[in-house]
Amino acid sequence: MATSVPQIFNVKTPEEQLNARMLLSYPADTPFGNLNLAQLELIGRIDYLNTRIAELYATYARYATNIEGTVPLQAQWLRLEIEEIVYWLRKSTDSLICITSILAEFRGKGAYPVRIPVDCIGAALNRLKISPVPQTVAVFQPHANTLLAINAISNTYKHHFINFETVNVLGPAGPTAFYISMERNDAKNPATFYGILVSDLVGACNKMYRDVRGKHAEWLTAN
Q1: I need a surface site. Which of 150, 175, 178, 197 has the fewest CB within 10 A?
Q2: Is 119 helix (H, G, I), strand (E, B) or coil?
Q3: pLDDT reading at 1 higher than 60
Q4: Spatial distance between the Cα atoms of 33 and 51, rounded to a whole number of angstroms
Q5: pLDDT in tens, 11-60
Q6: Residues paired with residue 194 on neighbouring β-strands, in sequence order
Q7: CA distance 13 to 208
Q8: Residues 199-204: contacts with CB within 8 Å, 24+ apart?
Q9: DSSP 9-74
């Protein structure tokens, strides 16, 4: 049975030619440079990410659905493809957070910040704990669980040694990000096993990206 390939919202498909009508008009005179270039970078990055997601599902269909006995090396590569996808999800989300933070600061104070108020997922999660939630991250409040998931998975891939224990674990329902967390790589702490379908993670990111870009469009039109 064919598995539907999830994709991240973008203004174009990877095969389409970029057209100026697809773009929002971001400020070009911020202390951090021309945000239109940041928009172009993000569009290109998501194009690449969507290509990698499609390739992951092709790999899964080729190897993981026809396994008998030992997991072949090519099927184990699924883990590496998923790690790369999570990396780009995090990188793209960090960029989206930075752009949002700059725009929100300008809207609130009428001037650009000299330091980006919120520049990554970790900083956004910390700000979301504040009551009332600052405008620099308010648009991400409905997507707090998505930020938490990306943060947890990417940090585990980067820092937690025992994640190699997932080398032969494959998702029967589709490509799955499996990860084992052990705080500070200290065996005195419990090892906790997690798994999330890539389709669920990408679907949540897709909704977040749509919502945030919609808010950008609203703000930029108002200005």
Answers
A1: 197
A2: coil
A3: no
A4: 28
A5: 999 999 999 999 999 999 999 999 999 999 999 999 999 999 999 999 88
A6: 179
A7: 18
A8: 199/3, 199/4, 199/6, 199/174, 199/175, 201/86, 201/89, 201/146, 201/149, 201/150, 201/153, 201/177, 202/6, 202/7, 202/8, 202/53, 202/85, 202/89, 203/6, 204/143, 204/145, 204/146, 204/149
A9: --SS-TTSPP-GGG-----S-BTTB-HHHHHHHHHHHHHHHHHHHHHHHHHIIIIITS--SSPPHH
Residue range 106-133: mean pLDDT, rounded: 95
Question: How far, in Å, CA of 87 to CA of 220, rounded?
Answer: 29
Determine the Cα–Cα distance for residues 44 and 89; give it in Å rounded to an integer. Answer: 13
Q: DSSP 3-state helix, strand, coil percentages of the chain (rounded to 5)?
A: 60, 5, 35
With 0-12 CB in 10 A as exposed, 13-18 as middle and 19+ as buried, what is 6?
buried
Distance CA 174, CA 198 (A): 8
- The DSSP symbol for 176 reads E
The span from the CA of 31 to the CA of 59, in Å, is 43
Alpha-carbon torsion (27, 32, 33, 36), positive or negative: negative
**The two structure tokens encoding residue 97:** 């957070």
Tokens 């009428």 belong to 110
The CA distance from 219 to 96, in Å, is 14
Give the C-alpha distances (Å, rounded to integers) separating 166 from 48, 161, 163: 26, 11, 6
CA distance 57 to 174: 8
The mean pLDDT of 62-78, rounded to a whole number, is: 70
